[in-house]
Amino acid sequence: MRDTRSIRQEILQLKEERNAILLVHNYQPGEIQDLADMTGDSLELSRAAASMEGDVIVFCGVDFMAETAAILSPGKTVLLPAEDACCPMAQMITADELKLAKSRHPDAAVVCYVNTSADVKAESDICCTSSNAVKVVNSVEQDTIIFVPDQNLGRYAQRFTKKTILPWEGFCIVHDRITPAMVHEARKAHPGARVLVHPECRPDIIDLADTVASTSGIIRHVCSAEEREFIIGTEVGILHRLSKECPAKRCYPLSEGAICRNMKKTSLVLVRDSLTTLRPRIVVPEAIAVRARTAIERMLAL
Ligand code: 13P
Ligand code: SF4
Predict the structure, then answer these.
(1) Domains 2-86+263-283 and 175-253 in one fold
(2) Can you give the residue ranges of every domain in the chain?
(3) Rounded CA gap, 108 and 145, in Å?
(4) DSSP code of 248?
(5) Which atom, in ligand 2's list, is nearest to the CA of 200?
(6) Distance (Å) from CA 16 to ligand 2 centroid
(7) For the CA of 235, the nearest atom of ligand 1
């Protein structure tokens, strides 16, 4: 306990010395969230990376998020404390595979979920996150859209557009495991509780939910709703913020096993070490960054 306190102190002091900010995703371990300058979803953290003051960004999340921060803040040092924290869904498509799909559908626009590598973003027309996918899809001129890599988010967006979405076959290994039986069980255990799920869930889960939203969208919904009980269908790290920001509400995980192992790789020790050594540093080659930035900035401009 005393050890943890002293590491926290060291981090706070190093942050000052380095003029660093800590951007933390909603799925991160609670002790990391508690140190954050900002905790948020992918869209909020991208905006913060582009606009917040500081020389160093310590990105507590997974690789594509830190890459996005580096693309949007070329003048800053961007650190990813857990070097091997990746998003398996982002690895389900490569730039070469996307180029092939583009050659097969030359008239289609490419919308890429922010959960992609910088190389894939560079091959895309516009980026989106879970909170703006529908808006982004409806903003493009083309009638056909290659949507990569999350088939579930692509199918979710298809519900709200007349355009034809061609979803890639990627998926989130955490959300895709949530089953209708889990929803029925949770409703039985907590009758009257509202079911809120992330759009990375499968279509049959979306059909059973009361509300579908990004991680921060779920938090806003719980905090502002009149109801008191909620079943939360996303990664369990979100429950930390929910208990802090809406303590009067009761939130139950839809699946206790919905844990993103990569998001849990960040630790206080790794954050401290990364502020000490300014490593591991995320650098995106400028030739890629310049094209990826266009796709991200088109999204931010919406
Ligand atoms: P949000 O942008 O909703 O926080 O989602 C990010 C993510 O990786 C969900 O699995
Ligand atoms: Fe990737 Fe899923 Fe983890 Fe989000 S929860 S970072 S989509 S593996």
Answers:
(1) yes
(2) 2-86+263-283, 90-171, 175-253
(3) 5
(4) T
(5) 7
(6) 31
(7) 10
Closest C-alpha to ligand 1, atom 4: 41
Ligand nearest to the CA of 87: 2
Its pTM surpasses 0.70? yes
Return the CATH fold of 175-253.
Rossmann fold (3.40.50)
Judge contact between 26 and 39, C-beta under 8 A.
yes
For every one of its 302 residues, what pLDDT tens digit does the chain have, with 9 covering 90 and above? 668 999 999 999 999 999 999 999 999 999 999 999 999 999 999 999 999 999 999 999 999 999 999 999 999 999 999 999 999 999 999 999 999 999 999 999 999 999 999 999 999 999 999 999 999 999 999 999 999 999 999 999 999 999 999 999 999 999 999 999 999 999 999 999 999 999 999 999 999 999 999 999 999 999 999 999 999 999 999 999 999 999 999 999 999 999 999 999 999 999 999 999 999 999 999 999 999 999 999 999 99
- The CATH class for the domain spanning 2-86+263-283 reads alpha beta
- Ligand 2 in contact with 48 (CB < 6 A)? no
Which ligand ends up closest to the CA of 197? 1
Q: For residue 184, with 0-12 CB atoms within 10 Å meaning exposed, 13-18 middle and 19 or more buried, which class applies?
A: exposed
Is the CB–ligand 2 distance for residue 14 below 6 Å?
A: no
Ligand 1, atom 2: nearest CA belongs to which residue? 42
Which residues, 6 or more positions from 294, have their beta carbon under 8 angstroms from its beta carbon? none
Instruction: Please tell us whether the domain made up of 90-171 is placed in CATH 3.40.50.10800.
Output: yes
Q: Which among 121, 57, 93, 148 is positioned nearest to 285, based on CA atoms?
A: 121
Tell me how far the alpha carbon of residue 6 lies from the centroid of ligand 1, in angstroms: 31
* Ligand 2 near 201 CB (within 6 A): no
> Percentages helix, strand, coil for the chain, rounded to the nearest 5?
45, 15, 35
Ligand nearest to the CA of residue 170, numbered in listed order? 2
Distance separating alpha carbons of residues 154 and 90, to the nearest angstrom = 14
Distance (angstroms) between ligand 1 centre and the Cα of 221 equals: 16
